[in-house]
Amino acid sequence: MQVRTKTHRIAALLAGTALLTASSAWAQETPTMKDRLDGAVSTVTGSPMADIDLDMKHVLDAMKKLDPKPIPKLSPQEARKQPSAADGVKELLKEQGKSTAPEAGVSTKELAYETAGGSQKVRIYTPDGATGPLPVVVYYHGGGFVIADIDTYDATPRAIAKGAKAVVVSVEYRHAPEAKFPAQQEDAFAAYKWALANANSFGGDPSKLALLGESAGGNLVTNVAIAARDGNVEKPLRVVAVYPMAGTNLDTPSYKDNASAKPLDKPMMGWFYDQTVRNDADRSDPRIDIVGKADLKGLPPFTVVTAQIDPLHDDGKMLAEKLKAAGGQVTYRDYPGVTHEFFGMGNVVAKAKQAEDAVIGDLKTAFAGTVTGTTAPR
């Protein structure tokens, strides 16, 4: 266990406000490829102020200037109008005199799929100049099942489409509280089956299909993999869960250490679950409490990505451990000094670019027919 000095203890008490003004940068080197492959990447939690990466700090400082209001004090409608981490990236790019235009080299088009709750949008990202049929990545955005949409989460599918030379299908789904659990999981599986059935029509190869999701989307990709297994539907070649919402225990060490972290804190996570579930019994449903209740045997190879300064850090770590214990192949990648939402910030956060490139490498390996996996975190 990490020993804290008096300074660290004070920092932990001030983390709720001092995080956005901290100037210390993380000094630890990026994990080596050998570390990644043998599962020996360290998993550290502790004071966000003490460990914040300088690139990450710049994003949080820029986001603070947009004056976001505390989500738990707002209605869902009000919360959806608050500045996002993606807005913080744009603000930082403006300060740096850089373009805020979407990454070039990718074209998009809008389509739709049918769910039990009606039609939902998908956005198809295709790398320019690529000849098909291309591998397909079905992508599910974050937002705690309540906020954000495919516009908010535009950077990740662009980066993945371009880097992996794949068609990315970015999925919209019904939001809580207007549509309570399990509407989101049902929509996610419907979108997956739609992608399998329609891949040829948008230049994709349905035999080379993977899943990628961030936060709430990390929950959805895991549930889709389980539903495909149980429903005798073609399995994805790989599942990438980035800081997934994988459990309902809000008293894990990372929830305690990062209770006041930004841009995601413990009160926000409680609010998201309150908006989503129909009753307390839903919190024990295996589709919500994946690490506590779900059967994880017989699933495809997984990549699990976590960020140190994130209440959900331990959700992801436990998911990797339980997948491994169930006999699954798991690549676990933990990134120190960065926060929830860092993935997709590759144009301003170096560790985000490293994480994106690593995931792209995992996807390319899966599409090439080579199965890899590592031990879970130790």
- Count of helix runs: 14
Distance between the termini: 13 Å
What is the string of SSEs from the N terminus onward?
HHHHHHEEEHEHEHEHHHEHEH
Give the % helix: 25-40%
Structure explained in plain terms:
- This protein has helices at residues 6-18, 33-38, 48-51, 54-65, 76-79, 85-95, 155-164, 183-198, 216-230, 253-257, 266-276, 290-293, 313-325, 350-367, and strands at 106-115, 118-127, 134-140, 167-171, 204-214, 239-242, 302-309, 330-339.
- By secondary structure, it is of the alpha/beta class.
- The protein has an eight-stranded mixed beta sheet with strand order 1-2-4-3-5-6-7-8, sandwiched between helices.
Give the structure's gist in a few sentences.
The chain has helices at 6-18, 33-38, 48-51, 54-65, 76-79, 85-95, 155-164, 183-198, 216-230, 253-257, 266-276, 290-293, 313-325, 350-367, and strands at residues 106-115, 118-127, 134-140, 167-171, 204-214, 239-242, 302-309, 330-339.
